[in-house]
Design goal:
Number of strands: 5
Structural class: alpha+beta
Oligomer: single chain
Strand order of the largest sheet: 1-5-4-3-2
Distance between the termini: 49 Å
Mean pLDDT: 87
Largest sheet: 5 strands, antiparallel
Strand content: 15-25%
Bound molecules: zinc ion
Order of helices and strands: HEHEEEE
Shape: rod-shaped
Length: 134
């Protein structure tokens, strides 16, 4: 706080209640309203991003496990049963008459009933200095 205080509010922007008298540094009437303000402004977007990233991570782990066991094709119900969320991918391309989906560096084609040609697009580079995962 630099104490400029050009904008002085007389009421709490969350609940409309009066701010404590003589406390021009306070924007909110209470800690509860301050928390609520930040939740409303940033919280929902952050929660949304976190859930989306979590779903992408789960999808990736499922596809990665399939590749590890040599599986390159699976029915959509079986993949859904495994917890895969088809609405959560990192990219989609129309390739000829095929629908190509990607989850990070793993891609597959999808027909009405199954995914197929599951494969890794780019070999994982070890030049980043990350230790091998296994
Ligand atoms: Zn308030």
């Amino acid at each position: 706080m630099d104490g400029k205080g050009k904008k002085t509010r007389s009421v709490c922007p969350v609940c409309g209640g009066a701010l404590p008298a003589g406390r021009k540094d306070m924007r909110f009437c209470s800690v509860r309203c301050k928390s609520r303000w930040h939740y409303l402004r940033e919280g929902r977007a952050r929660v949304f991003r976190r859930k989306l990233l979590g779903t992408l991570e789960r999808n990736y782990r499922i596809l990665d496990a399939l590749l590890a066991e040599g599986t390159t094709s699976m029915t959509i119900p079986d993949l859904a049963q495994a917890g895969y969320d088809f609405s959560c991918i990192t990219s989609y391309h129309k390739v000829g008459n095929r629908n190509e989906y990607r989850c990070f560096d793993i891609k597959y084609y999808q027909s009405g009933s199954r995914i197929f040609h599951l494969e890794r697009v780019v070999p994982i580079s070890l030049s980043s200095g990350l230790p091998p995962s296994d």
